[in-house]
Amino acid sequence: KPGSEADSTVDTGKDSEGTNVDDGKIVYTIKLVDESGAPIADTFVQLCDEKSCYAPVKTDANGVAEYKMAEGEYKAAVTIMPAGYQDVTGEYFYFEGDATEVTITLKKAA
C-alpha cells in the first residue's frame, strides 16, 4: 500500500522489537482480526499468566489492545465475543517464543 513505509518511522517510544525501554516493562499486544485480516474493534480481550488473568481491555479501531507488563509468559483470550463470529471464549492464544504480540483470527459464524 502506498505510504505504509512511513508508518515505520513513527517514534512510538519503543525499540525495534516493540519493547518499551524506560521502566523495564514490556508492551504485550493482542491483535484481533477477521479471516480477511481486517481489524475487529471494540471487543474485550484479556491477558493471562499461569496464575491469573488481568482486567479486560477493549480493542481499538486497529483491533489492538495493549498491556504493559513485567516480562513473563502470557496468553491471551477473548472475553466477550462480537456478534457474527464463532465463539472462542474459554480458549487461550499463546505468545510464541519471545514474541510480544499475538494475533487472534476470528471466523464468521456459519
Which key phrases capture this entry?
110 residues, mainly beta, four-stranded antiparallel beta sheet, three-stranded mixed beta sheet, 7 strands, 0% helix, globular, disordered N terminus
3D architecture notes:
By secondary structure, this protein is mainly beta. It contains no helices and seven strands. The model is unreliable at 1-12 (pLDDT under 50). Strand 2 (44-48) and strand 3 form a beta hairpin. The protein is globular and about 40 Å long. The strands form two sheets. A four-stranded antiparallel beta sheet has the order 3-2-5-6, with no helix packed on it. A three-stranded mixed beta sheet has the order 4-1-7, with no helix packed on it.
Characterize this entry briefly.
The protein has no helices and 7 strands. Strands 3-2-5-6 form a 4-stranded antiparallel beta sheet, with no helix packed on it. It has a 3-stranded mixed beta sheet with strand order 4-1-7, with no helix packed on it. It is mainly beta.
